[in-house]
Predict the 3D structure of the following.
Amino acid sequence: MLKAENLNVYYKKIHAIKDISFEVNEGEVVSLIGANGAGKTTTLHTVSGLLRSTTGSITFCGQDITKIEPHKLISLGLAHVPEGRHVFLQMTVMENLEMGAYSRGKVPQEEYDRVFELFPRLKERKNQIAGTLSGGEQQMLAMGRALMSHPKIILMDEPSMGLSPIFVNEIFDIIKSVSASGTTVL
């Protein structure tokens, strides 16, 4: 489903990732593991088009996406949940989910129900302003918003960072559920 070959990314003179290559097959849950500063976030940003590699290529579902703009990758079925959640703090939970579905136009209620089934806490708080949610709830919202684009693959950067142990277990159970429902996870 996703293949990255010989990626090299620089931040000015700093060689951030060096000749990274990997594959993610449909239906898999794949984790990038490494120390702080090893290039995990840079790799995800490169795959999602936020950064550009000076060499190599990225193929998604048989299509070269190496130079495709990030906003166009959403319609191809690639979603990215960035580190630090980045929900729209002044919008309600429901408005955040609507933003996730924006590229698809009007989506049926069943799509929202699917997210609420994975994240019952979001359903309870659907009219609440996102900035008033706990860190774990904001992480759930960021994941739910990404799922509203109906992705084939979802990239999650540090999905458990800064969360309490209870939320960490819950987030990883949800990742398993997302995978079981047919979405590939990196």
Q: What stands out?
A: The mean pLDDT is 92. The chain is about 35% helix and 20% strand. The first strand starts at residue 2 and ends at 11.
